[in-house]
Fold this protein.
Amino acid sequence: MKQSRYKYSALKLLKHGLTHGDWPRMWSSNELNSSYDVIIIGGGVHGLATAYYLAQNHGITNVAVLDKGYLGGGGSGRNTAIVRSNYLTPEGVAFYDRSLTLYNEMAHDLNLNVMFSRRGHLTLAHTDSALRTMHWRAEVNKLQGIDSSVIDPSEVKKEAPSLDVSSNTRYPILGALFHPPGGIIRHDAVVWGYARAADHLGVHLHQQTEVLDILCEGGEQSNGKGPGGKVTGVRTNKGDISAPIVVNCTAGWSSLISNMVGVDLPITTHPLQAAVTEPCKTFLPTVVVSGSLHVYVSQTDRGELVFGASVDPVGTYRINGTLEFTEELAGHVLELMPGIAEMRLLRQWAGLCDMTPDYSPVMGFTSVEGFLVDVGWGTYGFKAGPVSGETMAETIATGKTAELIQSFNIERFSTGDLVGEKGAAAVGH
């Protein structure tokens, strides 16, 4: 009897799989209106989260999200989906911890399984200097109420048995910053969840809609602090759209978009490469990061190892993989886990990262009235998606910069009030 029921359910599942044309779409396909209250450029997790929280938290639903490709086709679909909050500065810790909280609640809030997996996060220290930085970060984390501490090599071995913690290696592991709340999440599910929820609330999602220019009126400010003027809408490959508020939520092209209104961003764009192996039995229960070796690795629920490194040293817009990256990555990973030498690498890819001088984002208002930015995310934008959307929505709705992002304003680069996150963000996935 059990066998027949199983066979029936399997056949039923196959039947539904082959007749998926009758399934409802996750979000609607709408005609482009001639005007909106808010236009968001960029259909990744940041743009979609901003749209969702505008509608959910503030009742602003006359919103359009524009993407020149498809939703989640940029950095949101090209990252390694690691989330954590053990940053270096008090501003960064508070910001990313709120994002981690939202990730923990996301499956319930969006009514979609985003496959959040709390794994724990190890940042390895191979030198005395690195170990001092780990202690520094741990104390900042503790003062902010974050679960984070420095552990010795024996404890590292307990958390990640596959790591070589012996003292006769080229890069001995002297300790690690251990962050239990860290983990991984299904990045495409996050994009789909925000898109579906925003659509259900009335937001219009427009794919294959490229912004060619941002329309403004007015001119140069007399105080010399920016181009001035006022946003009136955007010009797209499908026509002009009027709107009093335009938000730049792009990655890779953030400088190009901001240049359309004359706002200069202190950003350079670099590729960030990643790779994945064939699946195997689960043996790596935690996320492992080594800043000294410029590598990070985690294992998916399907058993693949996902690797990444630091950004490419030369700024380009290339998103193809390179043999140089593969060779260097493999060498460094084998320094940490020599037991995986026989595993095969299946594929590699790259995404574009907008790097700022202090490794922190640029968020909030600009000198052009109605033009806001949520850019400059470097290698850590996916971690910040939920809180970025929440705070940008609050900023738009209230007309006042949300408290959590006040330190990330664009003026800090002229006043010198930088938020230095390099010690926790350069490769610290």
Remarks:
- Residues 55 and 408 are 24 Å apart (CA to CA).
